[in-house]
Amino acid sequence: xxxxxxxxxxxxxxxxxxxxxxxxxxxxxxxxxxxxxxxxxxxxxxxxxxxxxxxxxxxxxxxxxxxxxxxxxxxxxxxxxxxxxxxxxxxxxxxxxxxxxxxxxxxxx
Amino acid sequence: xxxxxxxxxxxxxxxxxxxxxxxxxxxxxxxxxxxxxxxxxxxxxxxxxxxxxxxxxxxxxxxxxxxxxxxxxxxxxxxxxxxxxxxxxxxxxxxxxxxxxxxxxxxxxxxxxxxxxxxxxxxxxxxxxxxxxxxxxxxxxxxxxxxxxxxxxxxxxxxxxxxxxxxxxxxxxxxxxxxxxxxxxxxxxxxxxxxxxxxxxxxxxxxxxxxxx
Lengths: 109, 213
What we know:
Chain A has five helices and four strands. Chain A is of the alpha/beta class and 109 residues long. Chain A has one domain: 3-Layer(aba) Sandwich (Rossmann fold). In chain A, strands 2-1-3-4 form a four-stranded parallel sheet, with helices on both faces. Chain B has 213 residues and is mostly helical. Chain B has one domain (13-82, 127-212): Helix Hairpins (Orthogonal Bundle). Strand 1 of chain A pairs antiparallel with strand 1 of chain B.
């Protein structure tokens, strides 16, 4: 069993704190830079990549592609401005894909 | 629409075998799909709860961090965080959910040196209290974050597998099995027809022979 690393991509204000708990941080400011970092991280041995929703919004395609793969796991996190609800949206999409109807969130909406 | 075949008895037997096979496969796949959906629902509920919880906690941590960034000079903040006390090592093993292979994350924290078990990589002198709180929250939430990563990945992979299985079930149920049944019917009717044809011919010949005598 090989060991992997954990990375976080996001704006500096949000992710610097992750550094203290031993996660590799990749501060970026634009979604283009985020894409480059993400591509770089995929080719290296990162098992889990956290990425802020704000950046992930523009990288939908590649994240959807990665979600079909075994590794790495790309996890969306909110940034310092709060959550955009994309993460929850993705869960919803998964439910719809698997079951055909949204049965998890219907009660609230 | 049926499959183009020669209406022979051999072909009929072959098709009947294929039909039973398809029906067995259909039943198995249906069972697989039902069980996958059951597992999926358990996981996806967990995923939703975890994510809601984490988004709340993280937002709180981030807003504290933002405050810390506001009250501290950027250089000293970066200096304070420059050398983390720990590195995280992630170990990945496979877990098998209904023959869907999903990664299972185990992580180990490794002290980078100093031997201290403190989560703060800095002294308390020139840093703000908000930074402490934010880092404490972050480090407390890490196990849950890893769990979220694991659960979310499993959910994604399961969703993919369920979709695939459902498509197979539907292809069998609505395409292959009706086609086979129709072809079997066609061959049976053809065979019966030729049997009848043979019988009438025999009777006719008998008549002809009898008339000559």
